[in-house]
Design brief:
There is one protein chain. By secondary structure, the chain is mainly α. It has helices at 2-24, 33-39, 44-48, 57-69, 73-90, 94-103. Helix content is 62%, strand content 0%. The chain is globular.
């Protein structure tokens, strides 16, 4: 139990630090990387593999809200760059990240992979 608590705390601390650092380096789009990370905090345990096999309803609601925030091509590209940069540092399991959007029925059109070319996002 303490292990899960430590992981959740580490995830929250990393997310807060990431918000502070990335917000300062924001590209000026309506959806900052900090906004994206904040939106996905309810998905933290699922994404790092310490939660259930399927994302929670709260996680899916957050993913849907993030989808509503990223309305332009530039916002989706910025979101892609953010996800690509932050996933490894937060311990996100790639298979969980790839499964999140389909499991939540979110059509964000951003492949979640460290190899994605964000300039190709439309």
């Amino acid at each position: 139990m303490a292990s899960n608590s430590v992981r959740c705390t580490a995830w929250a601390v990393a997310a807060v630090l990431l918000v502070v650092v990335v917000s300062a380096a924001s590209t000026g789009t309506a959806v900052s990387c900090g906004d994206a990370v904040n939106a996905l905090i309810p998905c933290g345990s699922y994404l790092v593999g310490s939660g259930k096999a399927e994302p929670s309803p709260q996680c899916c609601n957050s993913a849907k809200e993030l989808n509503r925030m990223a309305t332009t091509v530039e916002e989706r590209r910025a979101l892609c760059r953010c996800l690509k940069q932050t996933e490894p540092s937060l311990g996100v399991k790639p298979e969980r990240a790839r499964h999140l959007l389909p499991a939540c029925k979110v059509n964000l059109n951003i492949p979640i992979s460290p190899d994605v070319d964000c300039t190709r996002i439309t």
